[in-house]
Amino acid sequence: MDTKDKKIFTASSADIAEKMGVGWNYGNTLEANSGGTPSETIWGNPETSQEMVDAVADAGFNTIRIPIAYLSKIDDNNGYKIDDEWLERIAKVVDYCYERELFAILNIHGDGFHTITGGWLLCDSDEQEIIKKKYKAVWKQVAERFAEYDEHLIFESMNEIFDGIYHDPVKEYYENINDYNQIFVETVRESGKNNTHRWLMVCGWNTNIDYTCGDYGFRFPDDAGNTAEDGRLILSVHFYDPWDYCGEEEKDVFLWGEKGMEISDEYGISPDNVANWGDESYMKYQFTRLKELYIDNGIPVVIGEFGCIDKSIANMGIAGKIAENRAYYNGFVAGTAAQNGITPIYWDNGFNGCYGLGLFDRRKLIQTQPHIIDAIVKGVRNKDPFAGR
Known about the structure:
It is built from 11 helices and 14 strands. The protein has helices spanning 16-20, 50-58, 84-99, 128-145, 171-190, 209-213, 243-246, 257-267, 280-293, 319-339, 370-381; strands spanning 23-25, 33-34, 37-38, 63-66, 74-75, 81-82, 103-107, 153-156, 200-203, 233-239, 301-306, 343-346, 360-361, 366-367. Strands 1-4-7-8-9-10-11-12 form an 8-stranded parallel barrel, surrounded by 4 helices. β2 and β3 form a beta hairpin. The model is unreliable at 1-6 (pLDDT under 50).
């Protein structure tokens, strides 16, 4: 694609959320790996395709987040050079999004997990000098490769970086995360061309709302190299609350919120099967915090991941109602985010059925969860938390 012929997009902080609309993650694909070697299909999904991107666009999504793993594709013995074929494959996927005039978000995703062989972007490591040098080198190459792409391409600094232990942030390690964000911003800006005013996403400890909004040590990076007339930084957070409903397979919590309580009452389901925290009021509170701290101060916010796994199997007698409740939850996230000027991006891992998060069959190129898709898209379009009701 000749990106020079593309219109230079100059959204302001006041309208970037409106233009990004509603988003979808092309998850478990370009960040998939085996033993530290990235492989697009190793986690069971087919290769990324224009046809799949078309299906997502046709469903009403405006933004696609493309998680990336570099890992062994980085040559530590050659100035941290990224494998040319891998970088060009990433570019091809970005071009798929450009063909449909979608926003595309690229990050460093799989390299920051302690659980992945070859993970190196580790805030608790003693090798910070090497890590920061490598991190700068990677972003320099990515920025230079995409320097002429217009502002529909957004870079995101990293993904869920923390020390791998679920506790309050460690100040020393949080400072390393702050340093990563600063290095990222400065490196992209220094690469010139459209990167001097490209939208950049940064995140705090584990991309967690509480640890970003609270007094835990998050420092928003300086962006002195930005040549736009207004800010070009976006805050990135994730939202999977309540986790026992959204992500835990072991716990028998398969209903959520007011609708979940209604289903429980109507069908005689134990209240123990309804999440006992993280309801509608909690979600509203969290998103209002983001609005007041960031959006009201000219800093856009993106929920880079949200979603809840399919637990219909938990009670087959009301499987349909569990599915309805799932659509309600996702619509409530999307609509409440939109009400607060926040861009929501659903996490799709490509897997359907029990405990899956897929919205599409990526081989048949069809929607598998049309009610959830409808709730998310309409929730954002109409700024309506009850779109999935």
